[in-house]
Amino acid sequence: AQKVTQAQTEISVVEKEDVTLDCVYETRDTTYYLFWYKQPPSGELVFLIRRNSFDEQNEISGRYSWNFQKSTSSFNFTITASQVVDSAVYFCALRFFSGGYNKLIFGAGTRLAVHP
Amino acid sequence: DAMVIQNPRYQVTQFGKPVTLSCSQTLNHNVMYWYQQKSSQAPKLLFHYYDKDFNNEADTPDNFQSRRPNTSFCFLDIRSPGLGDAAMYLCATSRGTLAADSNQPQHFGDGTRLSIL
Lengths: 116, 117
Fold this sequence. Notes:
The complex is a heterodimer. By secondary structure, chain A is mostly beta strands. Chain A is built from no helices and 12 strands. Helix content of chain B is 0%, strand content 50%.
């Protein structure tokens, strides 16, 4: 079965702290894609990054970095020097191929609160 | 520029009164999705269209239906809304659903928050 687990329900940090959001996934597929989305209080889901199962290279984009480890089925997301604007719910998602179509399943989300 | 547009942002309807939510896109994507997101939960896929081909998730209630008259527009119809249908409804689009295209991210609209009186 396909599953995404985000064990951290809520995280609270003070501005400028580093924070890591955990994501663990389960899949039997050999080809799959992982995504992170941000959902600010306004409600829209904003795409942050995708990673395919054959590319374990970590990625850095400004203050954001992602650590994909296939051996532990994890795709963790780190925000360096957090800012108040980072406050949002972050969703990890797994895209897999089923019944002739691609489907996306989300983890339960981690609510990040960054305080001044 | 808005690429996936959902109207209205907030919708209030009465218990049992049919309601339609709309979604339009300027991306010319062939796939459109509808998700339901209840408070503090992950989005849950209701159904999607690949072009005109409609695909319903097995656990989507019969109360929920959808129409896609053309590439740009997709509607979510709730025939007889119950209190449990109060949620955020998110529309998303992507290019293709074949395995080769599965790296394409889904682009989401701002959502419509539905309240039931």
